[in-house]
Amino acid sequence: MNAESLLTSASINIGFALLILTLFSILRNSPSNAPIYYARRLSQHRRLSFLLRRFLPSVEWIRLSLSVTDDEILDTSGLDVLIFIRLFKFGINFFLVCSVIGLLLLLPLNYIAGEGGPSRRSHSMDAFTISNIANGSHWLWVHFLCLHFVSCYGLYLLYKEYKDILVKRINQLHIMRHQPNQFTVLVREIPLCDEHKARDCAVDHFFSKYHPHSYKSFQILYDGKELDKLLVTFASLLFFIFMFLINEAKSITRKIEDLRHRSMTKQNRVAPHAEIEQLKEILEELGRRIRNTQTKEQLQSKRSYFRVLFNISCLGFLQELPVAFITFKSRWGAALAAQSQQTSNPLLWITEIAPEPRDVLWNNLSIKYKYLPLHKFGVYVAASLLTIFFAVPVTAVQGIAKFERLTKWFPPAMAVQLIPGLRSIVTGYIPSVILNSFVYIVPFAMMGMANLGGYVSRSRKDIKACNLVFYFLVGNVFFLSLLSGSLLDQIGESFSHPRDFPSRLASAASAQADFFMTYILTNGLSGFSLEILQPGLLIWDTIKSHTWDREKKKRPYLYSLPYYRIIPFVALCILIGMVYAVVSPLLLPFLVGYFCLGYVVFVNQIRDVYITTYETCGQYWPYIHHYIVVAIVIMQITMIGLFGLKSKPLAAFSTIPLVVFTLLFNEYCKIRFLPTFYQCSVKVKCVFSFLISRGSYISNLENAIDAYSPPCLRAPDIDDVESGSLEPLISPT
């Protein structure tokens, strides 16, 4: 790819992003679009004010996003969301420093100190990369020093972030000390009681005996599918009774109005007062019945009463599951039980800290623990097959990006050269668009696979999907793009000379810099712009508003932050940026713009659109830390290959200790920080217990007992009756 193709791709992406952002700044000021662009605010019943100049584009949303602080995000959305935003801040801080070094030092060095002077290959983008440096040149030691500086600076930022997030996690746990999951433990693989052949009595006997001072109560889980069906039928019956009463009341109202109208006519001057009074009495009786039925709390109490009677008669045949939620009297008691092995058999009485009640995936709790490895193995197999099949479109994209190879495979493509500027669009813009289009469906496919993994909480399922998507992107979008793009013509030589393969891989990395520039432009400018515009929801809302929901009040479109869809792509861009920080510094300014735009867009989305559906208190960060360490190691290995390719064996061997140091740093972080993200110390739990009053302590225990009631034993919610049914049935005379 030449400079003209890169400039064409940049121009198209920048123009498209400016158009989309301008359209968003206009549409967000329309009250009819508030359920899309202010869903979070509407769910919190916050007032919205729209300016009279709302049809003029503005950048007010950017100013508001930049004014949001980390503390505000932490207080309103939680630590997980803050970590998501800190990932963009990490990218800005890291690549801003790398850009200064790359543009002021490495870029001029690559261009001036190249083979044959600055005029050589000045028409190509390779003139600004390390591949322009002559073999054996002493200027490569500058790249060696920059590699060490970039690596150490990245590790410093990682350590600083890890330490700061650990402190915030402990503070967040302190704030959430009243939550039910602080007192609750999830127990799986509960054996049957020898005496009663039941699991509920086995739970009570076991924890009363081995945790006598801290055990409070338990909630055994049941396979309540049939009970749920009956309760849905019961809810439908109540609704039909209510609607029947409403219809009868409306019918009597029409009769009263008709009698009044007839009494005022000349044909019937004598008003039928007796009949009207009789109908009024019937109407008042119906009104009393409706008022006794339409109140949500009374409906809930009636259904709860029904449920109690039903459970008393039906719990005998409901199948118990070998799973239970155990409530303890104190937090340290729950921590000790969750973090210890209960019996000598590790496959029985398996305990862990319970997830938040809103985070629990109840259906997956019915999966037997011994079958979970099979579920996870199936997920890995499905993800591997998807990765293999995805190699076809990636190879095709690289064929389009290399015009010479495209004309070799498809000779009619030579006609592209007849139209001025079309070749630059075909080779510079279209490949990145096609690749992003194919990759867009990958997170949803991986989430579907993660659903089959049997995870007990949504947060674990999302984290697993993040891992699957990240390694898919590293394998396909990064490595496969390198192999299919730059090594396809040399693959025969690679097999003939396998010892040269690392050097050829390093050469491929430097040759593909221009393609990854266009990829980041498309993924960042176009991707983030479409994220904030929400075109899919706009189209869906327009169709609904003009068809079946024409006269209904709009409800906000509430969604949680799609971690699995954003974090892996941001981590991939960090990987690309680190690999090319020393190889091709011209890429770095694009990454700074990528992270700045992403930061502004997602702060706006978090403030106005996305809601928080669970809180893990920062358990995403260890995975993000791992992704960035992987990126640093790949950068260092690539540079080892490049130094060998440039006939600098001493520089290549001197980089190996840097790789070892990075791996040791990662191990230190695992020992120093990681345990606190999955376990909580007894000391912290005891401190939390001392800070709570007696009344609040009893209330917390009661909430913990009720919060983990399974859906089949919980009164389902009943939607509020529409306001039209609560209006007066007859107008006053």
Give the gist of this structure.
The chain has helices at residues 3-27, 34-37, 39-43, 60-66, 70-77, 79-112, 140-175, 199-210, 225-263, 273-294, 296-314, 331-338, 372-389, 391-401, 403-409, 422-428, 430-440, 442-450, 458-486, 491-496, 501-511, 513-533, 535-545, 563-583, 588-608, 621-645, 649-672, 674-678, 682-690, 694-707, and strands spanning 184-188, 215-223, 319-328, 350-353.
Primary descriptors:
733 residues; mainly alpha; four-stranded antiparallel beta sheet; 30 helices; 4 strands; globular; disordered C terminus
Description of the molecule:
The chain is mostly helical and 733 residues long. It has a domain at 3-177 and 371-542 and 556-687. The protein has 30 helices and four strands. Strands 2-3-1-4 form a four-stranded antiparallel β-sheet, with helices on both faces. Helix 1 packs parallel to helix 22 (513-533).
